[in-house]
C-alpha cells in the first residue's frame, strides 16, 4: 500500500477550505433547495437501504471526499487487502478475514491456498459442531452436551457473544455462556449456573498466551476436575488457537484443537473457528449464512464504484466529521435489543484498529485518526443519553440501524419501535424553533411570564446529523453483511489516515505493567511506582488482611 499523507492531497485542501462554510450548513434548507437530495444521497444494495441525506454535507462534499479516497489510492489498497499483501506490516501478516467467507469457486488464484485452508478448518469445526448438536459427540460418560462455555476475551469473546445474542431467534437447544474478564466473581457467577457433567468448554485464544483467558481456563479446569474428574477433561475441553503447541501444553487433546490462522486478526475472527460457539448456538447452516452475508458485502465493497459503495461512503463521512467538523465520537444506535452488544463489539473493531497516532512511515500524524464509538439500543437510549444528542453542545453523528420486519408477530410493538426510529432522526434534524415552542405553549394555561421563562429550555437547535440504515430483516445473512460493512469501513478509514489498522501495540504496555504489579503485590514491594500508584497499592494491600 502506498503511504500517502492525506493532508497533502488536493481533496484534503479543498475540504479544509470548505469546512467553515459547512459548519453553517443547514439540513432543512438543503432539503428545501434540492428536492432530490434524499434520493441522491441514498445507497441501496438489495436488503440494505442506507440514507446518508441527513448528514451535514451535500453531493459536492461527497464528490470531494470520494476524490480523497481516489487520491489516497484506495483502489490499489483494496486489491492488496483482498489478495493477501502483508498489509499488517508491523506484524508482517496478511489481513484475510475475507478469505474465510470466500467460496472456493470464487477464489482468485492469489488467495486460493488461504481459502482452501479456511475451508478445511471450517469443515473440521462443522463436523465437530454438528456432532455436539445432534448428541453424537458426547460427554465423558456418554451423555449429550447441553451447555457451552466460551472462554476468551477481546476478539475471542466480543464477536461470538455479539453474534450469539443478535441471533437469539435462531438458537438451538444448547445454552451458551461467555467468560471473559479475569474476575473470579465473573467466573463464579457462570459456574453457579452450569452442570459440569454436561458442559463443553471452548477455550478461544489466538495466541494462547492471554492472561485473562488462561487464568479463567485453569480455574475452570480445576473446578471441573474437582466436580467430575481429571480423566474427563479431554472430553470436555476444546481449544481454538493459532498456537497449537501452547494449547497442547495446557492439556487440550490434539484432536480437540481447532486451528486459526495468523492471517486473521483477533477482532476480525468471528468468521473462523473463533466462531465455534456461534456455530454451536445457531447451527452450522446458519453460521454458513452468516459467512454468505459477509461475502455479499465483500463483493459489493470490492466491485462497486466508490460513489455507490456503502462502506466507502460511510468511512468518508466519518472522515468528514472527524477531520473537518471536529466531531470526536460517533454513536451507533440499533433499534433492536438483539444488537445490544453491537456497540461494544464495534468499539474493539474500530478503536483497536484505528486508534493510532503514527502513520505508515513511522511519523506522528498531524491530523485526527480513529474516533470514539459508543451506543445502546433504541428506544432505551432515547430515555438515557438522547437528551445530550438533542440539546447538548457536542456534535455527535449517529448511525441509526433498524430492521423492517420483526422476528415475532407483534405489529403494534414493531410499528411503535419503527415510529420512534424514524421520529428521532427527523427530530434531530428539524429541532424546534422558538416560534414553534411559542405556538406549542400557546394553548397552555401558564402565565405569559412563565411561558417566556420556559421557552429557551424547550428550543431544539436541530441540524444534528444521522445516517439511517434500514435493513429488511435481521437474519444470519443480513447480520454477516452488516458486520462486514463495518469491517470494510474501518479498512477505508485506515487507508486514508495512512495508519496501520491491523496491529494493536497500544494494548501491550498495560499488560506488561499488570504483570509487574502482580509480582509487586505478591512481594509487597511498592516503591518502584509513582506516589499515586503506591498509595493505591498500599490501600488495596491493607484491605486484604
Ligand atoms: O488485548 C489485545 C488482544 O490482542 C486483542 O487484539 C485480541 O482480540 C485479544 O487480545 C485476545 O487475544 P487472544 O485471542 O490471543 O487471547
Structure description:
The strands form 2 sheets. The protein has a 6-stranded mixed sheet, with helices on both faces. 49% of the residues lie in helices and 10% in strands. The chain is built from 22 helices and 11 strands. The chain is α/β, with parallel strands linked by helices. The model has no long low-confidence stretch (mean pLDDT 97). It binds 6-O-phosphono-beta-D-fructofuranose. 6-O-phosphono-beta-D-fructofuranose (F6P) is lined by residues 153-156, 205-207, 210, 213, 266-267, 352, 504, 507.
Estimate the helix proportion, in percent.
Answer: 40-55%
The shape, in one word, is globular
pLDDT averaged over residues: 97
**Ligands bound to this protein structure:** 6-O-phosphono-beta-D-fructofuranose
Number of helical regions:
22
Question: What is this structure, in a nutshell?
Answer:
By secondary structure, the protein is an alpha/beta fold. It contains 22 helices and eleven strands. It is globular and about 80 Å long.
Write the layout of secondary structure elements.
Blueprint: H1 10-23, H2 27-33, H3 37-40, E1 42-45, E2 48-51, H4 59-71, H5 74-82, H6 112-134, E3 147-151, H7 158-166, E4 175-179, H8 184-191, E5 199-204, H9 211-227, H10 233-236, E6 237-241, H11 244-250, E7 257-259, H12 276-282, H13 284-303, H14 310-324, E8 329-334, H15 342-354, E9 372-374, H16 386-391, E10 398-405, H17 411-430, H18 434-442, H19 448-458, E11 466-473, H20 476-497, H21 508-523, H22 531-544
Parallel strand pairs: 3-4, 3-5, 5-6, 6-7, 8-9, 8-10, 10-11
Antiparallel strand pairs: 1-2, 2-11
6-O-phosphono-beta-D-fructofuranose is lined by residues 153-156, 205-207, 210, 213, 266-267, 352, 504, 507.
Amino acid at each position: 500500500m502506498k503511504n500517502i499523507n492525506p493532508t497533502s492531497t488536493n481533496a484534503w485542501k479543498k475540504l479544509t477550505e470548505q469546512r467553515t462554510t459547512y459548519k453553517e450548513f443547514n439540513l432543512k434548507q438543503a432539503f428545501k433547495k434540492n428536492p432530490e437530495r434524499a434520493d441522491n444521497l441514498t445507497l441501496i444494495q438489495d436488503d440494505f437501504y442506507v440514507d446518508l441525506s441527513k448528514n451535514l454535507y451535500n453531493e459536492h462534499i461527497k464528490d470531494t471526499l470520494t476524490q480523497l479516497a481516489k487520491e489516497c489510492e484506495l483502489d490499489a489498497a483494496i486489491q492488496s487487502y483482498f489478495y493477501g499483501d502483508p498489509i499488517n506490516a508491523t506484524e508482517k501478516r496478511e489481513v484475510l478475514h475475507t478469505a474465510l467467507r470466500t467460496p472456493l469457486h470464487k477464489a482468485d488464484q492469489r488467495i486460493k491456498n488461504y481459502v482452501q485452508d479456511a475451508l478445511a478448518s471450517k469443515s473440521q469445526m462443522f463436523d465437530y459442531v454438528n456432532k455436539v448438536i445432534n448428541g453424537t459427540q458426547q460427554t465423558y460418560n456418554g451423555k449429550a452436551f447441553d451447555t457451552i462455555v466460551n472462554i476468551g476475551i477481546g476478539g475471542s469473546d466480543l464477536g461470538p457473544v455479539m453474534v450469539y445474542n443478535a441471533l437469539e431467534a435462531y438458537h438451538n437447544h444448547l445454552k451458551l455462556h461467555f467468560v471473559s474478564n479475569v474476575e473470579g466473581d465473573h467466573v463464579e457467577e457462570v459456574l453457579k449456573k452450569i452442570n459440569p457433567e454436561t458442559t463443553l468448554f471452548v477455550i478461544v485464544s489466538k495466541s494462547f498466551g492471554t492472561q485473562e483467558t488462561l487464568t479463567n481456563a485453569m480455574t475452570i479446569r480445576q473446578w471441573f476436575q474437582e466436580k467430575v474428574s481429571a480423566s474427563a477433561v479431554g472430553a470436555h475441553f476444546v481449544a481454538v488457537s493459532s498456537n497449537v503447541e501452547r494449547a497442547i501444553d495446557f492439556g487440550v487433546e490434539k484432536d480437540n484443537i481447532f486451528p486459526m490462522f495468523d492471517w486473521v486478526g483477533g477482532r476480525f475472527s468471528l468468521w473462523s473457528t473463533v466462531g465455534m460457539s456461534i456455530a454451536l448456538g445457531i447451527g452450522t447452516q446458519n453460521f454458513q449464512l452468516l459467512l454468505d452475508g459477509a461475502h455479499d458485502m465483500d463483493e459489493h465493497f470490492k466491485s462497486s464504484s466508490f460513489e455507490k459503495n456503502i462502506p466507502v461512503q460511510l468511512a468518508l463521512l466519518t472522515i468528514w466529521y472527524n477531520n473537518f467538523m471536529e466531531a470526536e465520537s460517533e454513536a451507533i444506535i440499533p433499534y433492536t435489543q438483539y444488537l445490544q452488544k453491537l456497540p461494544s463489539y464495534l468499539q474493539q473493531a474500530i478503536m483497536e484498529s484505528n486508534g493510532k497516532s503514527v502513520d505508515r512511515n513511522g511519523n506522528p500524524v498531524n491530523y485526527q485518526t480513529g474516533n470514539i464509538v459508543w451506543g445502546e439500543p433504541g428506544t432505551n437510549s432515547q430515555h438515557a443519553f438522547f437528551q445530550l444528542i438533542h440539546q447538548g453542545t457536542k456534535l455527535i453523528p449517529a448511525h441509526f440501524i433498524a430492521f423492517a420486519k420483526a422476528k415475532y408477530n407483534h405489529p403494534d410493538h414493531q410499528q411503535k419501535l419503527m415510529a420512534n426510529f424514524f421520529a428521532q432522526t427527523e427530530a434531530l434534524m428539524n429541532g424546534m424553533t422558538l416560534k414553534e415552542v411559542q405556538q406549542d405553549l400557546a394553548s397552555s394555561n401558564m402565565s405569559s411570564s412563565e411561558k417566556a421563562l420556559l421557552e429557551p429550555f424547550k428550543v431544539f437547535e436541530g441540524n444534528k446529523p444521522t445516517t439511517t440504515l434500514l435493513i429488511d430483516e435481521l437474519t444470519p445473512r443480513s447480520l454477516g453483511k452488516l458486520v462486514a460493512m463495518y469491517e470494510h469501513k474501518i479498512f477505508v478509514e485506515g487507508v486514508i489516515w495512512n495508519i496501520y489498522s491491523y496491529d494493536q501495540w497500544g494494548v501491550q504496555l498495560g499488560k506488561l505493567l499488570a504483570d509487574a504489579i502482580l509480582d509487586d503485590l505478591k512481594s509487597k514491594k511498592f516503591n518502584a511506582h509513582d506516589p499515586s500508584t503506591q498509595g493505591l497499592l498500599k490501600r488495596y494491600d491493607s484491605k486484604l488482611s
